[in-house]
Amino acid sequence: xxxxxxxxxxxxxxxxxxxxxxxxxxxxxxxxxxxxxxxxxxxxxxxxxxxxxxxxxxxxxxxxxxxxxxxxxxxxxxxxxxxxxxxxxxxxxxxxxxxxxxxxxxxx
Amino acid sequence: xxxxxxxxxxxxxxxxxxxxxxxxxxxxxxxxxxxxxxxxxxxxxxxxxxxxxxxxxxxxxxxxxxxxxxxxxxxxxxxxxxxxxxxxxxxxxxxxxxxxxxxxxxxxxxxxxxxxxxxxxxxxxxxxxxxxxxxxxxxxxxxxxxxxxxxxxxxxxxxxxxxxxxxxxxxxxxxxxxxxxxxxxxxxxxxxxxxxxxxxxxxxxxxxxxxxxxxxxxxxxxxxxxxxxxxxxxxxxxxxxxxxxxxxxxxxxxxxxxxxxxxxxxxxxxxxxxxxxxxxxxxxxxxxxxxxxxxxxxxxxxxxxxxxxxxxxxxxxxxxxxxxxxxxxxxxxxxxxxxxxxxxxxxxxxxxxxxxxxxxxxxxxxxxxxxxxxxxxxxxxxxxxxxxxxxxxxxxxxxxxxxxxxxxxxxxxxxxxxxxxxxxxxxxxxxxxxxxxxxxxxxxxxxxxxxxxxxxxxxxxxxxxxxxxxxxxxxx
Lengths: 108, 476
Description:
heterodimer; A: 108 residues; mainly alpha; Histone, subunit A; 0% strand; B: alpha/beta; D-Maltodextrin-Binding Protein, domain 2
């Protein structure tokens, strides 16, 4: 179980990797300090007994009639024009006009 | 200039929409930038689009046809909503130079109702912040006290209205980002019920919490704005198809007989005495107007900030994974593999607070911690929501302080994230519960800093909330 003050430098680096973030060597201790301070505050949630309490991901669930339950609120599944490809590609950092170009995917 | 003043001026021909737009641009040019008061509320101006719209309104007025409800009203848009033809940065370097190819639904609706869209407003990066000091393009200053923050994350939206740069504006509120800056800048801000206003075209922060809502100088104007913005949008599956209320019409009804709940948990330690006195005065006004004031308890209130920061950051860590340098915005130069390009782009593009929240959210969702943090916070969210549902069996609206203290000084809290997060102590519970809420000015401190009162309403009962707001405002 997570205790406050329990986030190590290794944890910060692991989480940064999961999140595709690169941290500079100055950022790591700062983030470690901040995460520990914030999680120390969050730890008070453990004081509450939540046994049998359902988890709520959005308010529709508790009010009833969440769109996912019936599908009634979903729009009809019909073909309609999407955004103009030229307009979308114009915003891309690197493109051949049809596709997004990226550096090589397979690392060796 | 209020919406009514714009409407009257256009109707009697004493002013044109074009002249109103030009006046506002002139004011922005004089005061918003470093040569004026350096408020820095606008990040980009959409002059061509605004003047084309103003010309259209003027032609309509000349023809004698009925004018739409927001005809000629100058409005600013928080820079997390996309507007075709204007850059969208979300206050972040990672989107620098991005020109979105479409309009947000809320932007479209305002323009269809005649509004003149002046430009894009500064905000905390990806709407993460309570002071607007996290904008990658520099902070916003509070027009009421230039050495102080305007609040956040919609600091630019609140400041622009307070400074007279716009009649109204759009902001977004995930954990208080409309209501808190409204209180700090002395304007009215509305958080609509979750699902009431479309979020299509909003750059997402935390999808179960994000809402779009209006700022204006008075309650009547936010009611008019909300009437235009509210309603179902087929492009947003979370938008509700419940009928839209008659918000302006509701303001005719007296508040006599309404039951107002006052939760004891919102008046504890840390509340500034001047703010406490102002809220008590607002409650007196409501009592004199015939409301029944009832003390209530929302027992899980103290867990709202920790639950909020787990839920919001977990959702943010997922939403912000789309910023990877492939499709839009910044791409780090020189990376020779895809994964290095992702990491370097995100390192260069994101500011410290965004990184902190992505790390926190990723941590809370990671194997071994999911149950202790994320699931636990979701369960506490249920308890917080049940608190409100039980209270609303006995009262029609809830009144609380909006902020524990008035606008603080620039730089005062930037070093301590927990201290900054505790700024949100009165705002996040209603965010988690999906309720509607608003901030209405209710006085000022001896030093002249604005004070806001928070009014919370039942889900989809914006009418009652606005009526209470008008009663408080009318007695100022």
